[in-house]
Amino acid sequence: MSRILAISGSLRKGSHNTALLRALPPLLPAGMELTHYGDLSGVPLYNADLDTAAPPPEVARLRREIAAADGLILAVPEYLHAVPGVVKNAIDWASRPFTAPALAGKAVLVLVATTGRTSGFRSLADTAQVLAGLRNIVVPVPEVVVQDAERALHTAADGTPSLADPATRALIGVQLAMLGDLVDSGAPASLESSFRRRTAEFLGIPAAPARTRE
């Protein structure tokens, strides 16, 4: 069973990106379990003075839940042609401490929901680039941006969202299956383990232990 943590990059109560994450369960492959982090509103702006052995409680929770997950799904809006600050701030916190970051060696899927019809791909690319630079492996294709999200996402009477377009559902299904394959392969964790080992050899210091799947 692969444990996947879903994080929405939007704080808005009626967020389309949060709804997109809530629409994923019917598309999950066998053996994948999805849990939702909740919103990121409690994570303070990154401040190195607060990044101590006892960081703010919500930061500690963010790091703990990311570290415990086998993989991540991030749903990221696009603000002003770029990744929104709330997402970058969460990544800043999760990328530290540098010796053993929570957000490294993970399989990650990045999705975007947007109300526009021409936007979304820049945010997708920005987020993927930052995550790859932290030694994560991001599902590269097919790239999926759910545009015109007000029409693309339907909400049932019980409040459950779903994707209206069969093609979009199929593409995201492929992505989710690839995410599961990445987790099962162990490649993301192996990449991080190699980085730590080779860096330690170069610097002549003991290697920090890499996490393993439970």
Give the key terms.
about 210 residues; six-stranded parallel sheet; two-stranded antiparallel ribbon
Outline the structure in words.
The protein has about 210 residues and is α/β, with parallel strands linked by helices. The chain contains seven helices and eight strands. The chain has helices at about 15-20, 55-70, 85-95, 120-135, 150, 165-185, 185-205, and strands at about 1-10, 30-35, 70-75, 105-115, 135-140, 145, 155, 160-165. The radius of gyration is 17 Å and the shape is globular. The longest helix has 20 residues, at about 165-185. The strands form two sheets. Strands 1, 2, 3, 4, 5 and 6 form a six-stranded parallel β-sheet that branches. The N and C termini lie close together (about 10 Å). InterPro entries: Flavoprotein-like_sf, FMN_Rdtase-like_dom, NAD(P)H-dep_reductase. This is NAD(P)H-dependent FMN reductase.
- Taken as a percent bin, the fraction of beta residues is 15-25%
Uncertain residue ranges: none
Number of strands: 8
What is the chain-wise order of helices and strands? EHEHEHEHEEHEEHH
Mean pLDDT: 92
Report the end-to-end length measured between terminal Cα atoms: 10 Å
- Treating each run of at least 4 consecutive H or I residues as one helix, how many helices? 7
What characteristic shape results from the CA principal axes?
Answer: globular
Radius of gyration: 17 Å
Q: Determine the structural class based on helices, strands and strand pairing.
A: alpha/beta
The portion of residues assigned to helices is 25-40%
Pfam families: FMN_red (PF03358)
Organism: Actinocorallia aurantiaca
Protein name: NAD(P)H-dependent FMN reductase
InterPro entries: Flavoprotein-like_sf (IPR029039), FMN_Rdtase-like_dom (IPR005025), NAD(P)H-dep_reductase (IPR050712)
